[in-house]
Amino acid sequence: MHNLVSLNSGVCASDGFYADGISAGLKPNGAKDMAFIYSDVECEVASVFTTNKMCAAPIKHFRSMGSFKTNFVLINSKNANAMTGKKGITDISEILSTCKNVTNPIMSSTGVIGVRLPKEKIINGIKLFDFTKKEPNSAASAIMTTDTFSKEIAYKVELEDGSSFKIGAMAKGAGMINPAMATMLCFITTDAKVSQSEMQSILDETTKKTFNAASVDGDTSTNDTVLILSNGKSGAYEKEAFKEALFKIMHFLALEMVRDGEGATKLVTYNVTGAKDDREAEVVAKALSDSLLMKTALFGEDPNWGRIASTVGASGAESNEESLTISFNEHCVYEKGTLYFDESMEEKCALVMKKDRFTIFCDLGIGTGNFEAYGCDLGHEYVKINADYRT
Amino acid sequence: MHNLVSLNSGVCASDGFYADGISAGLKPNGAKDMAFIYSDVECEVASVFTTNKMCAAPIKHFRSMGSFKTNFVLINSKNANAMTGKKGITDISEILSTCKNVTNPIMSSTGVIGVRLPKEKIINGIKLFDFTKKEPNSAASAIMTTDTFSKEIAYKVELEDGSSFKIGAMAKGAGMINPAMATMLCFITTDAKVSQSEMQSILDETTKKTFNAASVDGDTSTNDTVLILSNGKSGAYEKEAFKEALFKIMHFLALEMVRDGEGATKLVTYNVTGAKDDREAEVVAKALSDSLLMKTALFGEDPNWGRIASTVGASGAESNEESLTISFNEHCVYEKGTLYFDESMEEKCALVMKKDRFTIFCDLGIGTGNFEAYGCDLGHEYVKINADYRT
Q1: Catalytic residues of B
Q2: Distance of alpha carbon B15 from the chain centroid
Q3: B288 close to B373: Cβ distance less than 8 angstroms
Q4: Contact B293 A386 (CB under 8 A)
């Protein structure tokens, strides 16, 4: 059996990784707006990107590189380098050509859409990088946009044979939302000795159950990116342990993003079971987490189970009122046609909804498909942030 | 050529139709909550219902009747008779069995989900109906829930041969939203001499371009219903004239619902052209009208064209930044990779967005598919209405 030990760290937890954030003058008032991740040996890379067809220049640039090893990632906030056409890609090549002593550098951006990168500022910023720095929190702060707190996590994974590896990460995102200051980004570093192909397949699978299960407003930005760099320095690896650690890291960061969702006050888990298959369970869980009516009911702390039933029915998944069961935490309000929603039950459910975190259980009673999605409420603050953003 | 003459009327415009609204004590304070439509000869019926799998008892009851002619529709507000199982259907049969001198009566409901109908109140209400009344506005008011105004329209259609028919309608709905007080309902009456099958096929097609193109929050309720009753009393009919009149009526009522969308201050048309096909154009137009980020940008009167590009890209339809063109009314901000969004253009677009009604044009530059969808903004009032509804 393996053992996961939580570390108070981020992208520098693993042996051989360095990171820092600096101010290049992209954000006002000297706030940090550029970060790097550097490894003293070359790394395998696994990646997942947005499915948005207007994907940003950094993603197109990455894809044009084919398969490769790298030891350097450059990240800027405040400008997404999206909707900038071929010039946006050329800008990246020019910027990265000024980076010294690095192999196949990668660039990642987040911020405003449709504005060319301020090349000179970024090139000057690169000159401030110090590859001996291990300042993960400084890096995590530099990549923030509308985030209200930085997001980091790391584990040491101890294997049965006495060997161990480390894995750490940072992420930004206040909900895959707000394309004017867009994007979720997540960077994971590890010294595990894992092959690229295995790392990629584990990342693909884990993304579905974590970042792709979390929603603030159902939007998919032009820049969404998850990168894992593995430098193999620990010499240690075990597949199930790696999978578990990666899931814990990505699950934690996904929920941190929802918790930091613009204006969100509650983190709600939608646990859907009994669907025809897993895909239909996913459709239902995401319909619930994306529903405006659910989100406003959550904000109002109103145990409006009719909205749940209606959203399930509207989702397109196979369902019917005779086999549906709905619970707020342990309190079942509707079970296969029988309604338990009297005044006393309404009070109990209203108490559940006052919590910061709770679960809505929805059993469709048809098959064995299941999925868990994560959402938040939508209140006045969301409207304020998104309506007034540019003023 | 035919000629459409606007009439200041609703469901009683056509020869032989009667309607009224009464108070049966379902709503508080003696507000009207039950309405009828009666025809002095039997009518052909065409219908469109919600695709929600939790569809309400009245819809199941209607479907169980097979094909039939009718002369009577009973409508109640305040209670949706949804999620009420087989008892909900039995309740309808019992209620309708008390209606005298009518053929194959139909019932339609809107309101709270998951509560049995107050049968006695409704049966007593039926006794108050007077089939000689032509009070279309009273009927239109009685079917309202969160609507802030009643919705009616009627035309006289003059055909080239000197004959004419009439068509009138009423609708309720403040946005296909709020499943606690759910539903859009629309009732159309005509004395045109149209066959059931032709009327049904014209209704199906027209629904796609009108009610199904209008969105307040993208939700589909348990009770959505459109019914047309035709009694043929005019003896007149011409297909193209009927189609045009029906489109104008349903288009007007759909936009009235969006305009009355909970908390909405703007009515926005999303005109999508150049898509691979019409279906993809529809996907893009609806993605735009449903997007929370678009809705909050509208509320903030922020010409945030990046949100439009990102939403198009995320919609799943074929698109790319080199062929995309975006305009706010006549002002083009982005054309096939070239950005015209300088300060002066931003001011012009911001002025457009201050209007009550405007159009966002989005040409994908790929094929000939097109679709027009209708949406509104989302502001603090929406959150307030939906979060605080039950308190």
Answers
A1: 183
A2: 24
A3: yes
A4: yes
B52 within 8 A of B171, measured Cβ to Cβ: no
Residue B46 backbone zone (phi > 0: left; psi -120 to 50: alpha; other: beta): beta
pLDDT at A176: 45
The rounded distance, in Å, linking the Cα atoms of B161 and B235 is: 12
One-letter amino acid at A377 equals D
Q: Which fold has domain A267-387?
A: Ubiquitin-like (UB roll) (3.10.20)
Nearest to A83 among B113, B309, B389 (CB): B309
| Start-to-end Cα distance in chain A | 55
CB-CB contact of B284 with B292 (8 Å):
no
Token pair 């709600």: residue:
A268
B97 CB neighbour count, 10 Å cutoff:
10
Contact: A312, B383; criterion CB under 8 Å: no
Angle between helices A278-290 and A292-299 (to 10 degrees): 60
Q: Could you read off the pLDDT of B301-356 as tens digits, one per residue?
A: 888 898 899 899 989 999 999 999 999 999 999 999 999 988 999 999 999 999 99
Judged by CB atoms closer than 8 Å, whether chains meet at A53 and B114 is answered as no
Interface touch A386/B220, C-beta < 8 Å: no
Chain A interface includes B311 (CB < 8 A):
yes
> Do the Cβ atoms of A114 and B55 come within 8 Å?
no
Distances (CA, A) of A61 to A40, A66, A103, A188: 23, 10, 15, 20
pLDDT digits (tens, 9 = 90+) for A71-123: 999 999 999 999 999 999 999 999 999 999 999 999 999 988 889 999 999 99
pLDDT at B376: 86
DSSP letter at B79 equals B
Contacts with B71 (C-beta within 8 Å, 6 or more apart), sequence order: B38, B39, B40, B41, B42, B43, B102, B103, B104, B231
pLDDT tens readout for residues A163-214: 999 999 999 987 544 333 457 899 999 999 999 999 999 999 999 999 888 8
CA atoms within 13 Å, Cβ hemisphere of A383: 20
B130: left (phi over 0), alpha (psi -120 to 50) or beta: beta
* Best A383, A384, A388, A390 residue to mutate vs chain B (most B CBs within 10 Å): A383
Say which residue, B113 or B270, is predicted with more confidence.
B270
Chain A, nearest residue to B85 by Cα: A337
- Residue A310 to residue B390, Cβ atoms within 8 A: no
Within an 8 Å CB–CB cutoff, is residue A210 touching chain B?
no
Closest in B53, B114, B291 to A306, CB measured: B114
Q: Could you report the per-residue pLDDT of A201-244, keeping only the tens digit for each?
A: 999 999 999 988 887 666 678 889 999 999 999 999 999 999 99
Give yes or no for B54 touching A (CB within 8 A).
yes
Interface subset of B 85-124, CB within 8 angstroms of A? 85, 112-114
Cβ–Cβ contact B310 with A under 8 A: yes
Question: In Å, how far is B251's CA from the nearest CA of chain A?
Answer: 23
ipTM for the complex shown = 0.81
**What CATH fold (topology level) applies to the domain B3-259?**
L-amino peptidase D-ALA esterase/amidase (3.60.70)
* Full DSSP string of B255-304: HHHHHTSTT---EEEEEEEEESSHHHHHHHHHHHHH-HHHHHHHHTT---
Residues of chain A with CATH 3.10.20.340: 267-387
